[in-house]
Specification:
Length: 106
């Protein structure tokens, strides 16, 4: 009897953890802090791009906000064009930046 109760409790805990884990959503608020620290100098406060940086690098910066999650994630983790990958950014922070970038939609 005690064994079956332990098994039931253990199963309930495992079920609860697996069901709640995907519910943890990315935070645009936390993403804003990461964006300010890692992205803002080149992409601007509103995601429209820093014209001085764009001119210096001879690039045209597309305004941020309309990109897909995958496009933002690739840009941050692997780089795109002349943009190098962002060093020292945790996976959760990438998700948070993605959530924040989506708030910049024009």
């Amino acid at each position: 009897m005690k064994r079956s109760i332990r098994f039931l409790v253990f199963g309930a805990v495992i079920y609860g953890v697996t069901m709640l884990a995907p519910a943890v959503a990315a935070s645009a608020t936390d993403g804003s802090a990461v964006y300010s620290a890692k992205c803002k100098s080149c992409h601007g406060a509103d995601g429209s791009g820093n014209s001085t940086i764009a001119k210096m690098m001879s690039v045209t910066m597309k305004p941020l906000g309309a990109q897909t999650d995958a496009e933002v994630k690739t840009a941050v983790t692997a780089g795109v064009g002349k943009m190098k990958p962002i060093a020292g950014i945790a996976a959760a922070d990438v998700d948070n930046v993605i959530a924040y970038v989506h708030t910049l939609k024009k």
